[in-house]
């Protein structure tokens, strides 16, 4: 429809709108440089949004994962095929539950992922304290649907990757220079208030979000 | 069977007579107003974030054609295919082509008001393609063969009893319950099966970033992620006004949007899509398409004042705070976008002839303008549209679609007489003298005014006369 | 629109703009407002040729006719004295919308100068006259209705409250949905009578639920609507203009 393109752009150009300069009035946004401040804020907001948050040292990750998985009776867990915590995840699941590595295109095991997996485990690219959001940067080692399709999402976050707020994180990491195919902010389990303004969790995505924050990592 | 703006009066009366509907809306609006108020507890914070959001939207609109081209080239560089549509027919044809080229028969759709605007579901049905709504509210609305009554809470007109009845009728195996969790689980189970099997996922776009070729989607449910991640083809559709210049423009707009809409600091998901699945990736759509729709927007763009209409980020705060919307609900308007924003955008989408009753259906109370996160002067634009519906275009400017459609010689005569009387003291004095002297002759029934009020009774003497006596 | 306004020092003279509704339906409110202003020591000039601000034509889309009316009114107030309007709604028209009507025209500058001189009664009493009220009336309860224009265009819902707040014997009752429109909206009430009816019925219910003895407003447009509905429903509550109420509290004879 290149004629539509030309017609639309022509109509817009004919107006000769005067381009306005970049003028960005300041607005207040939560910020801090103190790690503990940020951790407290992140935890509080995530919990308000119905996520389960645990702070622990990295050395305790395997045990914590194992405890969580067996405690909740999770039988089959989908994981990536790499990523920073792959070895610890694998170790934790050994003898605890069945590990399903995401090593084939989604199409080839859609039914299984949708209907026969209890939880998905991923790492996080970072997190944002101001809004209580995890930042996920899915890729070949940890595909997008790991954090979306199974009814429970277990996310592992390194405290050192925490940022005060979204604009700060964007600027610091230069997101404007190029973005991955998919970048996500997750601030709790899936929810809806579409029926009579009554909040219900697990609308389509995970009903549970479990966040393990590694304080010394 | 669907409502039309041409029948606004009748539709409004029907809605007003429906006590359950009135209660549903009052409850919902109270809830949403409360949420917004809590989110903007600090007045300074509210003011400054609105300053920022308004500045961003105005700047981006001022460069609209350039930003659209930049968006297009960056999307293409990212592997997103970009299509342009001047109207609903062209947009639907693009959808049909893409879906049929994949032999698709089932599309799942995340919430998109633009897709409502082009009546996508209906158009696809004609082509043998099922287009299933997956947002919980939209799903409910589609089951009932209705349209959304609110832009962010589509099923807000229904209470849980009505939803349960609908499920009983349409969802096989549903055991009647009023438990909202169970109702949501019912929808979840039906829809998850559809995400898994759908050929195509459809979504709207909240912000399209020119700088990076990124499509941003704001949601709580996860259905938007499902639709844009699981099917092999993702088609996003958006109005041409949704483009922003920089990625850095997104955070303040996102914050203004969620706080104004549902009073949330942030939504559960903020999904930034910058391309299809890469060679080595294992999920995500293999194709991503972006459809840029004009459909009357360039008409609004042409006029500097009306261009402000396009600043809208679709938060719904104007309708949540509107005393008219609160009482008649969204369906009565007969337009895709109801409430105050609907009254100023619909005349551009559908023409003034069809929509001429909408701009007048406002007491100009200003509640909408007071809460708009991007400071669209909605009351002034309503005023402007009232003018355009009655008058010729300003010399040297192109007429709006439906310009002067509501003009009437009788009304023009009334206001000419009004101007004459109010600008000629002698005439005005005569008129008020008559009104006060013959006040007992004013009938008890004064048309629509006295359907719920007594007729106004002028005083025995005007102020002018009282002052003349006082100054003697 | 609610930008912060800088108020002038107390002038020697002011014009009063009574509005067509006060002129015709409640001239006593006009007289009371003038007396109230005079008590502050200012000389009040009432121009008998004044009629209507033109808002009905303007809000109906007849800008040319509204301009004819507006020009005729502005011509009646040539001296640089403040113009005190006895209604937030007409005040909004004359303070804000006149600017919009004449933007880019040959009259732009003179109109803007006029608009700068327009004040709503209560804001003038509070911010310029710095009126202090000594309540001499008996104990009573009131509920206040502020017009939408007063609230959102003139930002003067605060000043009406401040004045009532100075009255020691007067209890100000809060109504539910106080900021919601009463459904008048000028021609809106006749163009969309069913919606207007729903709005005024809710408004009167919320007002009556306060069980206040008296309804106060500084806008005769709203009062025409609300009083008409209250009378139709057979409710005892009635609205009076704020100026009349304030004046009644200052005079011993009512005590």
UniProtKB/TrEMBL annotation, chain A:
- Which Pfam families does UniProt cross-reference here? LUD_dom
In terms of SUPFAM superfamilies, this protein maps to: NagB/RpiA/CoA transferase-like
Report the InterPro entries cross-referenced here.
FTHF_cligase-like_sf, LUD_dom, NagB/RpiA_transferase-like
Residues covered by the LUD domain: 41-214
Source species, domain of life: Bacteria
Q: What is this protein called?
A: Lactate utilization protein C
Q: Which organism is it from?
A: Oceanimonas doudoroffii
TrEMBL record, chain B:
Q: Which Gene3D superfamilies match?
A: Alpha-helical ferredoxin, NagB/RpiA/CoA transferase-like
**InterPro entries, from UniProt?**
4Fe4S_Fe-S-bd (IPR017896), 4Fe4S_Fe_S_CS (IPR017900), FTHF_cligase-like_sf (IPR024185), Helical_ferredxn (IPR009051), LUD_dom (IPR003741), LutB/LldF (IPR004452), LutB_C (IPR024569), NagB/RpiA_transferase-like (IPR037171)
Source superkingdom: Bacteria
Domain 4Fe-4S ferredoxin-type residues, every copy:
302-331
- What Pfam families does this protein's entry cite? Fer4_8, LUD_dom, LutB_C
Q: Would the keyword DNA-binding be found if you checked this record's keyword annotation?
A: no
- State the UniProt keywords alphabetically: 4Fe-4S, Electron transport, Iron, Iron-sulfur, Metal-binding, Repeat, Transport
PROSITE patterns cross-referenced by the UniProt entry: 4FE4S_FER_1, 4FE4S_FER_2
**Transmembrane spans:** none
GO biological process annotation, one example: lactate metabolic process
Q: SUPFAM superfamilies, from UniProt? A: alpha-helical ferredoxin (SSF46548), NagB/RpiA/CoA transferase-like (SSF100950)
GO molecular function ontology, one term from the record = 4 iron, 4 sulfur cluster binding
Q: What is this protein called?
A: Iron-sulfur cluster-binding protein
């Amino acid at each position: 429809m290149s004629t539509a393109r030309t017609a639309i752009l022509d109509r817009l150009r004919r107006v000769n709108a005067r381009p306005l300069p970049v003028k960005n009035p300041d607005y207040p946004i939560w910020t801090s440089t103190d790690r503990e401040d940020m951790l407290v804020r992140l935890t509080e907001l995530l919990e308000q949004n119905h996520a389960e948050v645990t702070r622990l040292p990295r050395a305790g990750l395997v045990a914590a994962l194992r405890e969580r998985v067996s405690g909740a009776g999770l039988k089959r867990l989908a994981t990536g095929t790499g990523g920073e915590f792959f070895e610890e995840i694998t170790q934790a699941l050994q003898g605890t539950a069945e590990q399903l590595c995401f090593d084939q295109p989604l199409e080839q095991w859609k039914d299984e992922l949708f209907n026969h997996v209890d939880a998905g485990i991923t790492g996080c690219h970072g997190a944002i304290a101001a809004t209580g959001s995890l930042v996920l940067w899915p890729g070949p080692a940890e595909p997008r649907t790991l954090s979306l399709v199974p009814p429970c999402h277990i996310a592992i976050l390194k405290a050192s990757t925490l940022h005060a707020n979204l604009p700060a994180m964007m600027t610091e990491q230069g997101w404007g220079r190029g973005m991955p195919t998919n970048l996500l902010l997750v601030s709790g389990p899936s929810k809806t208030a579409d029926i009579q303004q009554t909040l219900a969790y697990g609308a389509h995505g995970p009903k549970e979000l479990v966040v393990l924050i590694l304080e010394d990592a | 069977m669907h409502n039309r703006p041409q029948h606004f009066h009748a539709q409004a009366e029907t809605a007003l007579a429906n006590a359950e509907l009135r209660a549903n809306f009052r409850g919902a609006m109270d809830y949403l107003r409360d949420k917004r108020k809590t989110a903007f507890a600090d007045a300074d914070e509210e003011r400054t974030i609105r300053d920022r959001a308004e500045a961003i939207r105005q700047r981006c609109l001022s460069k609209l054609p350039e930003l659209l081209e930049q968006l297009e080239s960056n999307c293409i560089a990212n592997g997103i295919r970009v299509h342009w549509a001047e109207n609903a027919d062209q947009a639907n044809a693009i959808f049909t082509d893409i879906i049929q080229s994949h032999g698709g028969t089932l599309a799942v759709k995340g919430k998109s008001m633009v897709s409502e605007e082009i009546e996508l579901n209906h158009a696809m049905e004609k082509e043998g393609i099922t287009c299933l709504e997956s947002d919980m509210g939209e799903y409910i609305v589609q089951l009932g063969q209705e349209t959304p009554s609110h832009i962010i809470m589509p099923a807000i007109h229904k209470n849980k009893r009505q939803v349960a009845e609908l499920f009983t009728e349409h969802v096989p195996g549903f055991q009647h319950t009023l438990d909202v969790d169970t109702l949501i689980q019912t929808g979840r189970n039906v829809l998850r099966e559809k995400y898994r099997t759908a050929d195509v996922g459809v979504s709207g776009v909240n912000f399209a970033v020119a700088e990076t070729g990124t499509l941003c989607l704001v949601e709580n449910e996860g259905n938007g992620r499902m639709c844009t991640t699981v099917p092999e083809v993702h088609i996003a559709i958006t109005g041409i006004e949704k483009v922003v210049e920089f990625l850095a423009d997104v955070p303040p707009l996102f914050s203004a949007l969620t706080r104004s809409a549902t009073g949330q600091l942030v939504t559960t998901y903020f999904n930034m899509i910058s391309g299809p699945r890469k060679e080595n990736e294992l999920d995500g759509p293999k194709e991503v398409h972006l459809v840029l729709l004009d459909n009357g927007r360039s008409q609004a763009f042409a006029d500097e004042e009306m261009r402000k209409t396009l600043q809208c980020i679709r938060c719904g705060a104007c309708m949540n705070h509107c005393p008219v919307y609160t009482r008649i609900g969204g369906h009565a308007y007969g337009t895709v976008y109801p409430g105050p924003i609907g009254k100023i955008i619909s005349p551009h989408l559908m023409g003034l002839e069809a929509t001429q009753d909408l701009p007048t259906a406002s007491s100009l109370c200003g509640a909408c303008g007071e809460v708009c996160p991007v400071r669209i002067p909605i009351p002034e634009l309503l005023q402007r549209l009232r003018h355009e519906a009655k008058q010729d275009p300003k010399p040297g400017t192109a007429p709006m679609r439906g310009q002067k459609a509501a003009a009437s010689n009788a009304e023009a005569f009334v206001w000419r007489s009004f101007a004459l009387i109010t600008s000629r003291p002698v005439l005005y004095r005569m008129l008020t003298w008559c009104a006060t002297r013959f006040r007992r002759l004013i009938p008890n029934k004064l048309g629509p005014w006295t359907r719920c009020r007594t007729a106004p009774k002028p005083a025995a003497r005007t102020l002018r006369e009282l002052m003349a006596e006082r100054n003697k | 629109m609610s930008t912060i306004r800088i108020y002038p020092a107390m002038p020697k003279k002011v014009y009063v703009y009574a509005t067509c509704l006060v002129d015709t339906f409640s001239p006593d409110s006009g007289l009371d407002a003038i007396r109230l202003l005079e008590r502050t020591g200012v000389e009040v000039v009432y121009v008998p040729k004044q009629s209507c601000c033109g808002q009905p034509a303007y809000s109906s889309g007849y800008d040319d006719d509204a301009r004819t009316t507006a020009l005729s009114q502005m011509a009646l107030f040539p001296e640089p004295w403040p113009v005190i309007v006895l209604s937030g709604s007409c005040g909004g028209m004359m303070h804000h919308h006149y600017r919009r009507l004449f933007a880019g025209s040959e009259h732009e500058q003179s109109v803007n100068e006029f608009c700068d001189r327009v004040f709503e009664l209560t804001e003038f009493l509070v911010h310029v006259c710095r009126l202090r009220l000594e309540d001499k009336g008996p104990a009573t309860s009131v509920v206040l209705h502020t017009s939408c224009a007063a609230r959102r265009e003139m930002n003067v819902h605060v000043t009406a409250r401040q004045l009532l707040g100075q009255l020691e014997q007067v209890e100000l009752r809060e109504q539910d949905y106080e900021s919601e429109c009463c459904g008048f909206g000028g021609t809106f009430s006749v163009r969309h009578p069913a919606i207007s009816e729903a709005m005024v019925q809710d408004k009167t219910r919320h007002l009556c639920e306060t069980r206040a003895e008296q309804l106060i407003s500084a806008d005769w447009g709203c009062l025409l609507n609300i009083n008409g509905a209250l009378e139709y429903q057979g409710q005892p509550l009635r609205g009076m203009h704020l100026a009349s109420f304030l004046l009644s509290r200052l005079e011993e004879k009512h005590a």
